[in-house]
Amino acid sequence: MGPCTPLVTLFLLSWLQPLQGQQHHLVEYMERRLAALEERLAQCQDQSSRHAAELRDFKNKMLPLLEVAEKEREALRTEADSISGRVDRLEREVDYLETQNPALPCVEVDEKVTGGPGIKGKGRRNEKYDMLTDCGYTISQVRSMKILKRFGGPAGLWTKDPMGPTEKIYVLDGTQNDTAFVFPRLRDFTLAMAARKASRVRVPFPWVGTGQLVYGGFLYYARRPPGGPGGGGELENTLQLIKFHLANRTVVDSSVFPAEGLIPPYGLTADTYIDLAADEEGLWAVYATREDDRHLCLAKLDPQTLDTEQQWDTPCPRENAEAAFVICGTLYVVYNTRPASRARIQCSFDASGTLTPERAALPYFPRRYGAHASLRYNPRERQLYAWDDGYQIVYKLEMRRKEEEV
């Protein structure tokens, strides 16, 4: 080795000593960090063990409660099934009793016979109606009910055009409005966002009540002229009938309804003054006047000119009436109570005289305790389109010949 070797060795030793000091500090730092991590892991394990124990205790406490709740739920379900079975049996018994003991027909007894003051004559014709068709059917029963959806407010009207070729659905919401919804088909109306699929038709004058009718491409409705019901003036308690072309959106004809002192025909539907109806024979109007404020009147209208062809005083009372419709020239009046209960056809009047009150069926509507704001009969489908507290309902009808016994 040369004379420079000791010098190199001293140099290397002096350079390595600082490195060894730094490594020693780094090792101590890493040991402290690992110790802190180990302490945190131990704390996490303790907390996990404690939480697991609490969950086990909670589970042990809840299992008996869940078993008790399940037993109570089964008991309630059994009781509900039992009550439903008893209700079904009771309704069958009530229906049987009704068939054995039908309600008394709506036949008025002249008060002169009983020594009373008598009924004042109205001077109307009250002649038998000559049928234009061979339609001779009457209702046997309301066979089924289908609730489609809830749309709009508690009062309104929805219908199809019984004379039109399309499947359009017409919805008139409210008792004083000027905008009708038109849906391309029933399927579009039943969608969740139905209003987006509808076109809107605005009429020039707001309608009154829920007595509107779509017939042959026209919307027939009653409007309150200035001074009409509630407005004072010369036209107090009179209404104007409007014939509105739905395609052209123009008023084709109008006429003041030829009856003075109009009052709501239905005791439970105070906003409707004239209820328009259509059947196999054409266009009809149900109304009432102060001259006889206890009973309904029926009129046959000309759908082309809105002229009144015939009028009848019916024996059907206004009290507790909520809606009506016409089938084959026979007026059927639906009655209810307040608060609303199960509706029933309790009076009928055949303008042609073929169907006697004794032969008329007086069926209940299927089990729904509501109030009908409107009923529209479709002669092509033999169905009723009902507006029941904002719900749109279809009733299927079962028919029989008028000559058949109940």
UniProtKB/TrEMBL annotation:
Ranges for domain Olfactomedin-like: 134-401
* Keywords, ordered alphabetically: Coiled coil, Developmental protein, Disulfide bond, Glycoprotein, Secreted, Signal
Provide the protein's localization.
Secreted
A biological process (GO) annotation for this entry?
signal transduction
Instruction: Give the superkingdom in one word.
Output: Eukaryota
Which named protein is this? Olfactomedin like 3
- Similarity section: Belongs to the OLFML3 family.
Its cellular-component GO annotations read: extracellular space
Signal peptide region = 1-21
Q: Gene for this protein?
A: OLFML3
InterPro entries the record matches: Olfac-like_dom, Olfactomedin-like_domain
Give coiled-coil spans as residue ranges.
27-100
